Amino acid sequence: MTVADIFNEIPFAKHLGIEVTEAADGHAEAHLELEAEHSSNPATMIGHGGVTYSLADTVGGAAVVSLTEDVAPTIDMRMDYLAPVTEDIHAVADVVRDGGSMAVVEVEVYDTGETHVATAHAVYKTSGQGAENAWRSENDPRDGAD
Amino acid sequence: MTVADIFNEIPFAKHLGIEVTEAADGHAEAHLELEAEHSSNPATMIGHGGVTYSLADTVGGAAVVSLTEDVAPTIDMRMDYLAPVTEDIHAVADVVRDGGSMAVVEVEVYDTGETHVATAHAVYKTSGQGAENAWRSENDPRDGAD
Amino acid sequence: MTVADIFNEIPFAKHLGIEVTEAADGHAEAHLELEAEHSSNPATMIGHGGVTYSLADTVGGAAVVSLTEDVAPTIDMRMDYLAPVTEDIHAVADVVRDGGSMAVVEVEVYDTGETHVATAHAVYKTSGQGAENAWRSENDPRDGAD
Amino acid sequence: MTVADIFNEIPFAKHLGIEVTEAADGHAEAHLELEAEHSSNPATMIGHGGVTYSLADTVGGAAVVSLTEDVAPTIDMRMDYLAPVTEDIHAVADVVRDGGSMAVVEVEVYDTGETHVATAHAVYKTSGQGAENAWRSENDPRDGAD
Question: Which of A78, A124, B3, C58 could bond to A64 as cystine, CB 3.0-4.6 Å?
Answer without folding.
Answer: A124
